[in-house]
Design goal:
420 residues; single chain; mainly alpha
């Protein structure tokens, strides 16, 4: 039996939606504490700026600076770690220092709890999960033409277009349109530098059947897959609704899985979408309070996260933290985006994926890790901040200067060891 989590309409952990009762009886068992639907256990880069930089600096042999000596050994360590029954402790230690591009998808799925430790179980689990996601899509996407065909064949009168009852399919269709009106605004903005999402002619196929788009332009096929993923998530978690930024988190997962291999085989775009849906659900189960508008000013919500960040920065560098406070440079002015989007807006995509390797290496403490990573970013420009005024410091923090990601992640690890 597949156990799923559900974020209910009443706030944090909530109840079940009536229209899915029959479906959930077939596929799910409610977790006793509720949660996010989709979280497990009940609880080819092309960029307009060119190829990505190496994942991490590599040591070279004396007299031959072009020949790395650690890269091959490190890859072999990952391949060994992924054999048989995976030891997550070893995988986390390796992932913290960066994951090879083509192995990143498999490693993230293990670190996020989507894949079981026993590799022999992967095929069965993936088959079941991907079928479950397809059933979610079939259950939630209302196709007007199909409803009319059912009516003409003697279907339920409740599905008549003139029926105004809230549980009719037409009412669901209108509700779906309202969901898409919020999602569609952000789809074209997602990772705009990537050919994967934004280049090529728009695809004439509409994965959402007759559902209209609200941007005035047709979406590429990969944009449509991301759109459907977000639509299904929002429909299953009405207590959260769609919040700007969810597109960035799910988009990076979807892109990564679509460009990674699993057991030497590339995924279809549909498989990557399904896998990204479940891993996104898990990620939101850890970050969800930051996306819950009802908790914005609560210690459990984004304000609480900002307070934790300030506490970390003060512990790590009290002088710098005090200087920013004297200038009234509130973390909401710059760190809000860093924390909620896991730094995905501050760096180019290859660097973001490297940062997420570090964050996912201890996904249970992903919030703590992003606080320390953000603190390390601020400390890396402390000299400029201590000498700058409010205006220059605000500009510096809101448009963070280019930096060596591996260097500040190494500092993040040191700060975690010293202060957490």
């Amino acid at each position: 039996t597949v156990s799923v989590l559900y974020w209910g309409r009443g706030g944090r952990w909530g109840g079940r939606k009536k229209m899915l009762e029959s479906f959930k009886k077939k596929f799910t068992t409610a977790a006793p504490h509720g949660g996010i639907i989709g979280a497990p256990g009940g609880s080819g880069w092309r960029d307009v700026r060119g190829a990505p930089p190496p994942l991490a600096p590599t040591r070279t042999e004396p007299g031959n600076k072009k020949k790395p000596v650690e890269t091959k050994n490190r890859r072999e360590m990952f391949e060994d770690a992924l054999k048989g029954t995976v030891d997550l402790k070893i995988l986390r230690q390796l992932a913290e220092d960066g994951i090879p591009d083509d192995l990143r998808g498999a490693c993230w799925k293990l670190l996020l709890g989507y894949l079981p430790h026993d590799r022999s179980e992967w095929d069965a689990v993936l088959k079941e999960k991907r079928k479950q996601y397809k059933d979610f899509c079939d259950e939630l996407i209302v196709i007007p033409d199909t409803v009319m065909e059912r009516l003409e064949a003697g279907g339920d009168h409740k599905d008549h277009p003139l029926n105004l009852e809230s549980d009719s399919l037409w009412a669901q269709y209108q509700q779906n349109q309202r969901v898409l009106s919020t999602v569609d605004v952000d789809i074209p903005r997602t990772m705009p530098s990537l050919h994967f999402f934004n280049h090529g002619d728009p695809d004439g196929t509409n994965l959402m059947a007759k559902m209209e788009t609200y941007t005035g332009t047709a979406f590429t096929r990969n944009q449509q897959h991301l759109r459907r993923l977000l639509f299904v998530f929002v429909k299953l978690n009405p207590g959260l609704n769609y919040v700007q930024g969810m597109n960035e988190l799910s988009g990076h997962l979807f892109y990564t899985f679509a460009n990674s291999k699993l057991e030497g085989t590339s995924l279809t775009i549909e498989e990557a979408e399904a896998d990204a849906f479940f891993c996104f659900s898990t990620l939101i189960s850890h970050l969800g309070d930051n996306f819950c508008r009802a908790l914005d000013r609560d210690e459990l919500g984004i304000q609480g996260s900002l307070n934790h960040f300030v506490e970390v920065l003060h512990n790590c560098d009290p002088e710098l933290c005090g200087h920013l406070e004297e200038q009234n440079l509130k973390p909401a002015f710059y760190a809000f985006r860093w924390i909620t989007l896991l730094l995905s807006q501050e760096f180019i995509v290859p660097d973001v994926l490297r940062i997420w390797d570090f964050l996912f290496s201890d996904v249970g403490q992903v919030n703590t890790r992003v606080y320390f990573a953000a603190a390390a970013m601020v400390i890396s420009i402390r000299a400029d901040l201590l000498s700058g005024d409010f205006s220059s410091n605000m500009q510096l923090l809101q448009d963070f200067p280019p930096t060596n990601v591996d260097t500040f992640l190494l500092e993040s690890s040191r700060l975690i060891e010293q202060f957490s």
